[in-house]
Design brief:
Layout: H1 2-17, E1 44-56, E2 62-72, E3 77-86, E4 92-102, E5 110-123, E6 125-139, E7 147-157, E8 163-173
Antiparallel strand pairs: 1-2, 1-8, 2-3, 3-4, 4-5, 5-6, 6-7, 7-8
């Protein structure tokens, strides 16, 4: 008898919550609108125009201008080529090429990156160099993608003294 009472109670409880279901009346969880994301760090070409500064062990620090071209094969891997002209006593010309590894943070439209490469410089003496460094790419708008960059590289010179090159400027994508 107890079993019959239990089964009857379950049947009554089930019928009490049963009803017609309509998807028009169903309320699902309310999701927040998607956060705007930055689409500025995909594959493609960009140019850099800005200022450069050189700091070396001999105390011959100087400033000048810089121009660069960047090409990204993917969101994270690209190549960079730069030319900088610095106003040292003997007019320092710097030609560099780097492998760029970047890690975009789309929610704030910023991409930190690492640089590894080398180049050629003339500053009284001419010679090759190896370089490593890093930078930060900041984009103003997720639609125009024009932004600022700041980077620094340490150069191990094959002739002459080692030095640090700092570049700051505007990055314009195409």
């Amino acid at each position: 008898m107890k079993l019959t009472t239990l089964l009857m109670s379950l049947a009554l409880a089930t019928s009490a919550v049963a009803g017609t279901y309509s998807s028009k009346n169903a309320k699902g969880p309310v999701l927040p609108p998607p956060a705007p994301t930055c689409g500025c760090f995909g594959p493609g070409l960009s140019i850099d125009v800005g200022a450069a500064g050189i700091f070396n062990r001999d105390g011959e620090d100087a400033a000048g201008g810089t121009f660069g071209v960047n090409y990204f094969f993917s969101r994270n891997i690209g190549l960079q080529a730069n030319y900088s002209l610095l106003a040292t006593d003997s007019e320092h010309h710097e030609f560099d090429g780097h492998l760029v590894l970047r890690a975009p943070i789309d929610s704030i439209c910023i991409a930190p990156y690492a640089l590894l490469g080398g180049g050629y410089s003339t500053n009284g003496t001419s010679g090759g160099n190896y370089s490593a460094g890093g930078g930060l790419d900041i984009r103003f708008s997720p639609t125009s993608c024009v932004g600022l960059f700041a980077e620094g590289t340490y150069h191990w010179a094959t002739s002459g003294s080692d030095y640090t090159l700092v570049r700051l400027g505007v990055r314009i994508p195409f």
